[in-house]
Amino acid sequence: MADVIPGERLERVRNDVREAAERSGRDPDAVEILPVTKGHPASVVRAVAETDLGRVAENRVGEAEEKLEEVGRLGLEWHMVGHLQRNKAARAVQVFDVIESVDSRRLARKLDREARKAGREHLEVLCQVNTSGEESKGGFPVAEDEEEALAGVAEVCEQERLHVRGLMTMAPLTDEESVLRETFRVCRRFGRRCGQEIVGFESDVLSMGMSNDFEIAVEEGSTRLRLGTALLGERP
Ligand SMILES: *Cc1c(COP(=O)(O)O)cnc(C)c1O
Description:
Elements: H1 7-23, E1 32-35, H2 42-49, E2 55-58, H3 61-71, E3 77-80, H4 89-95, E4 98-102, H5 105-117, E5 123-129, H6 146-158, E6 162-169, H7 177-197, E7 205-207, H8 214-219, E8 224-227, H9 229-232
Parallel strand pairs: 1-8, 2-3, 3-4, 4-5, 5-6, 6-7
Helix pairs in contact: 2-3
The structure holds pyridoxal-5'-phosphate (PLP).
């Protein structure tokens, strides 16, 4: 267990984050690392709990439930980062501390209702935004129709029980640095705009950057990296 996250690997990622932050004049401590344990057994969640990372992310409700059953919450903050179907919103509210993948107004309204039913005063969420224009990606359509995206995020912020902390985006699957960089820039700019134009929007979290693009994401202002492979190795 001790070497599921070899200290070495975490060290290396932290080093890369620090260097990327320094290159862009940012404070490395302003960048959180969120380990994504999807596809890994519950023992990996336990290994994460032995580090000082303090949080864990899954992309499916059922898989998170299974792991919780096996190892419990372990004092970690549980994040949902995958597409959430509305018919699983009630379960998600039971399982997750933070939902990073609020990608539609209907889902936001549903989560608000379920939080109320569950007696949860505040459910912390991020609005997922599509900043690449790829059809396969979910999220409010910043690349396609920024005004619609702005109105969508504003409606999420209107939900009484949802506490919107910022934005989440996924870059396209490509090695083209300029494309990745532009996707992250669009997200950061949109976050700034939301902060200026939407009451109740706190633009402090930008969840962007995965294993193959996290250094660019740091350079472009990410405050939270969602890392699977780079931190935990290939999914079995
Ligand atoms: C799987 C996943 C990640 C992590 O992916 P890696 O490339 O393994 O780092 C991050 N974000 C989301 C939404 C994911 O589904």
